[in-house]
Amino acid sequence: MAGEPTEVVLLSFWSSPFAMRARIALAEKGVPHEIREENLGDKSDLLLSMNPVHKTVPVLIHNGKPVCESALIVQYIDEVWTQEPPLLPSDPYERHRARFWVDFVDTKMFSVMRSGWFVKGVPGEGAKEELMETFKLLETELGEKAYFGGERLGYLDVSFFPYYLWFHQLDKTVETGLEGEIEAKLPKLEGWMKRCTLRESVSEILPDPDKLSDYIRQIRKKIIDAQA
Ligand SMILES: N[C@@H](CCC(=O)N[C@@H](CS)C(=O)NCC(=O)O)C(=O)O
Predict the structure, then answer these.
(1) What would the pLDDT profile of 1-25 be if each residue is shown by its tens digit?
(2) In angstroms, rounded to a whole number, what is the distance separating the alpha carbons of residues 50 and 103?
(3) Mean pLDDT, range 42-68, rounded to an integer
């Protein structure tokens, strides 16, 4: 790879928590790249040809070749750009644990958030308790560490932060039934979120909160209208 010209393009969408993962990872590694903003209502031919299976963003295009699915993109970035900081631990067991928790975030937490708030438009029965339980599990995994990755930001931090950010904004925008509970009951996750936000790699990709709130309202309206 050394000495070869490298072209890195990220097909992205400003509010996508998945695209945020790839953007944070690229920024952490200092990889020069171009962001191409997609219109998800009218996807570009490039997106459809680069990700014909899922047709979703993000897609990392590295020297013309597509890398799809955000968690796999972050792993790919870590493997190709081996400079500091490493995102995945070198120890196989620690690597496994980081992957285990990212899988948990993508399967369990996403489904709880979707079924609890996005699909029904309002929190369903037990959704609030289930979501708090998943956050608590992550808080326990964080423990007293500065980041899930230990002293430095790693794979799980990069992967979970955008979800947590989204949930915060959701909580400020619509009736979640959790008002104030997150801050009061998850002090370690709150401290972690603030630490992440202070990093340049994260602060430079944060969406405007009002714009995100408007977007959340729009999605929710669409969901509710579709059910009517
Ligand atoms: N599992 C995928 C999820 C990507 C995803 O759902 N992206 C959304 C934006 S947040 C998207 O492209 N939606 C367009 C569509 O589904 O048509 C990943 O991790 O990359």
Answers:
(1) 445 668 999 999 999 999 999 999 9
(2) 24
(3) 98
pLDDT of residue 222: 80
Residue 206 Cα to ligand 1 midpoint, Å, equals 18
70 class by beta-carbon count within 10 Å (0-12 exposed, 13-18 middle, 19+ buried):
buried
pLDDT of residue 45 exceeding 80, the answer is: yes
CATH architecture label of 92-227: Up-down Bundle (1.20)
Our answer on whether the CB atom of 18 is closer than 6 Å to any ligand 1 atom is yes
Determine the number of helices (DSSP H) and then strands (DSSP E) in the chain: 11, 4
Q: What is the architecture of the domain spanning 8-80? A: 3-Layer(aba) Sandwich (3.40)
Residue of 57, 75, 77, 212 to mutate, ligand 1, most atoms within 8 A of C-beta:
57
Peptide bond into 58 cis (omega under 30): yes
Dihedral of the alpha carbons of 178, 103, 87, 35, in degrees to the nearest 10: -80
